[in-house]
Design brief:
Radius of gyration: 16 Å
Largest sheet: 2 strands, antiparallel
CATH topology: Hypothetical protein af1432
Number of strands: 2
Helix content: 40-55%
Number of helices: 9
Number of domains: 1
Strand content: under 5%
CATH class: Mainly Alpha
Order of helices and strands: HHHHHHEEHHH
Distance between the termini: 30 Å
Strand order of the largest sheet: 1-2
Length: 195
C-alpha cells in the first residue's frame, strides 16, 4: 500500500509552533508569488507552480523516509524540524526568477551568487518573519544542498538534519525531477498545484 501524499497545508500543520504559524503567514503573504514560481530554471519542477510542487514533494519524501530511518536508528531531530528546513531551504526561488514576455526566465541580479547573496536574502526573510531557529535548524538550512566550500576533512560541517534534508531535496531534484506528474501520478493523491 502506498503512503498518503500530503498537501503543503497538511505539512505546515505538522510543524511545531511558533514556526508552523509563521510558515502559514509566509505562504499567505506571498501566495501569488509562490504559486507562480518555478522549482528551478531547468533541472527540476521547472514549470509554473513548480516551486510549491517541489516543496510539497520533498516534504512527502521526508514523511516516507523519516519513520523508516528513525526506527532503524533514532534520529537526533524531529520530523517537524526536517519539514521546517525543507520548507525554508529554497526560500529565494520565488524572488530569483521572473518570466519575460517571450517566456524565458530572467535571473534577479541581486540573487545570482548562492554563497553570499542568496544566503543573505534567505536569512533576512527568516528574520523578517520571526522564525525561531536553533543552531541545528540554521545548519540544516545552510547545508541542505551540501557543504560545498565549507567542507573540511577536520570537522563535520553538515549535521544529520542537514544530511537528511539534502537526501530529500536531492531525490526530488535529481530522481523525481518531473513529479508530481501532471496527471495520473502513481503516488496516490499526488498532484501538481493549481495555478
Amino acid at each position: 500500500m502506498k503512503p498518503t501524499y500530503h498537501t503543503l497545508n497538511e505539512f505546515l500543520d505538522m510543524i511545531e509552533e511558533p514556526n508552523g504559524s509563521i510558515c502559514r503567514k509566509l505562504l499567505d503573504d506571498n501566495r501569488t508569488l509562490f504559486t507562480a514560481a518555478r522549482g528551478s530554471k531547468h533541472n527540476h519542477q521547472a514549470w509554473r507552480g513548480g516551486y510549491l510542487d517541489h516543496i510539497t514533494e520533498i516534504m512527502n519524501i521526508a514523511a516516507v523516509l523519516y519513520p523508516q530511518l528513525n526506527e532503524a536508528r533514532p534520529l537526533n531531530f524531529s520530523l517537524s524540524d526536517s519539514l521546517l528546513v525543507l520548507y525554508l531551504h529554497d526560500l529565494e526561488k520565488p524572488w530569483k526568477y521572473t518570466t519575460k514576455e517571450d517566456g524565458t526566465l530572467e535571473v534577479n541580479p541581486a540573487l545570482t551568487d548562492k554563497e553570499t547573496q542568496v544566503r543573505s536574502f534567505v536569512e533576512q526573510k527568516i528574520r523578517e518573519y520571526g522564525f525561531v531557529l536553533t543552531e541545528g535548524l540554521w545548519n540544516g538550512i545552510n547545508y541542505v544542498e551540501g557543504e560545498k566550500n565549507d567542507y573540511s576533512g577536520k570537522r563535520r560541517t553538515q549535521t544529520p538534519l542537514a544530511a537528511f534534508a539534502h537526501l530529500c531535496d536531492n531525490w526530488s531534484a535529481r530522481g523525481w525531477f518531473d513529479f508530481p506528474a501532471e496527471s495520473d501520478d502513481p503516488w496516490l493523491g499526488a498532484k501538481r498545484s493549481k495555478q
